[in-house]
Amino acid sequence: MIPLLQINHLCVDYVSPNGVARAVNDVSLTIGEGETLGIAGESGCGKSTLAFAIAKLHKAPALISEGEILFQGEDVLTMSAARLREFRWNDVSVVFQSAMNALNPVITIGEQLTDVILAHRNVSYRHAVERAAELLNIVGIHSDRLRSFPHQLSGGMRQRVVIAIALALEPKLIIMDEPTTALDVVVEREILNELYDLKSRFGFSILFISHDLSLMGEIADRIGIMYAGNLVELGDAEQVFHAPKHPYTQGLLASFPTIHGPKERLFGIPGSPVNLLDIPRGCNYQARCIQCTSLCRVHEPVLKRVSDERQVACHLYSAS
């Protein structure tokens, strides 16, 4: 069965006068129909760059240098401008982080919703307004808010509006890039609950991007961990949480306090993320890894399957 989305050996570079920074390095993954795949990692690890590349929304100095992105078997990277316009919003939509910045501050919520519908559907203005009102109701906002401007809404309501826009054309895949950033935990919980309900109702797939692993564990079916542009671990969400294999994943989870049991000292990951303009030979994580070996300083590990539902890029499992 062809997956909804298949990424093969994708590389995305940022070209600057100081050199080439590889933000996404040889990433391969799939997303099935109705699946939620979470991508987690520190800021600057390549999560958002990967998301923009999937929808081909990246702009200079970003450049896709290698790989392919297949959506239902069709190569996104070879799509014509007309096909790309249809592909975006109809097949794939994006919920950007920071909803206030994603919405036009001088246009009403209703206009922003109807603009998307009218641009991609051959319908009357009246039908578009009715659909916009329906979308607001779907995400828990009264249709009276169609005449409101973004600054007149709370942060949680603005985020719901962005989700409504993403749902407008009933896409098969929604990319959510830090969708709950800057929201308090109560509103964050409300947004997550609505996502559960909407996914059950409409059956779309989600690529959920976040630096918050605890949040990821609640919504994702599978989790991928990125570090310095590389996908270092990929597997079932529950397995990744309860038995992390890559030292970086272990470090991320060790930095979260436990709710139950005795209090224990938290241990952060030592050092700083690698400079993408000066990638070391071997493993990108070697300078911060407490399990680093001589092999790690010479050969770059590749993502390999270590069990039916787990892939890890680490020399500790090279003999598995």
Automatic annotation (TrEMBL):
Alphabetized SMART domains for the sequence: AAA
Entry's Gene Ontology molecular function annotations: ATP binding; ATP hydrolysis activity
Location in or out of the cell: Cell inner membrane
Keyword Manganese annotated: no
Record-linked Gene3D superfamilies: P-loop containing nucleotide triphosphate hydrolases
Keywords: ATP-binding, Cell inner membrane, Cell membrane, Membrane, Nucleotide-binding, Translocase, Transport
GO CC field: plasma membrane
Membrane topology term: Peripheral membrane protein
Family affiliation: Belongs to the ABC transporter superfamily.
Protein name per UniProt: ABC transporter ATP-binding protein
Source species of the chain: Vibrio agarilyticus
